[in-house]
Give the backbone structure.
Amino acid sequence: MKSFLLTAVIALVSILSINAQKLENSTLWKIEGNGLEKASYLFGTIHITCDATIEEDVKKALDETSQIVLEIDMDDPSLQGKIMQGMYMNDGKTLKDLVSETEYTAIDSLFINHMGMPVKMLEKVKPFFLTAMLYPKLLDCPMQSFETELMRIAKEQGEEINGLETIEDQLQVFNDIPYEAQAKDLVRSAKDNLAYDKKSFAKMLKIYKEENINAMLDTMNDENFTSVAEHQDKLLDDRNKNWIPRIGEYAKEQPTFFGVGAGHLAGDNGVIKLLRKAGYTVTAVTE
């Protein structure tokens, strides 16, 4: 349960925006220059997948670095409690305050069919988290996570696991985005019993396998995901900008392997271009 909650939270906030200038097709990038004594690496993950196999080039990058930094420190024993506290809406709000009676019935049917429980048991939970609970249902396979694999490797190698932001930072995103916007996407998912979500996620998995980080942005900038389109500054841009100095600090201390959602890589406000703007040389690892 703890692993799923952590993965779901990260997946929720790994949202994407349009990219004008294309980057190479690669999910692994080398960070050099700007005072770094040794190279670090940036790896774009997909948080929920059918196959989280670590490829040879990524293994080599892991061997050449001495610590792993994810979006958050997923090894922190206090995370589960903080997530549980942050799941609930403020001011006594419930799902019924956000949707019509017909929409509530559709969501209730969705949860009974897929989760085996009525949504009434969860109606104080923020709509984003209700959506996250359904993520495993978008796959036709047992759910795997690259973050879980990276944590396993870090422990095998006796390396530290750190984060670019705190769980409080991530949870704040779900307070900043209006509950009504969150609920709108949940209603859409309920009306077609996840059909559109499954189709979109299958497409994204295919694109990720092709390492086409630009196409991932275009795919996820979908008007059917309203809260994503209207709040990309909070979900993506602001977080990317906050990460750059922290990436620099970690990389200057020791060669570091950074693992973040692949959607954070591309775009004018993506991590790659922001690192270049900050003076680093960032090149695709394509072999």
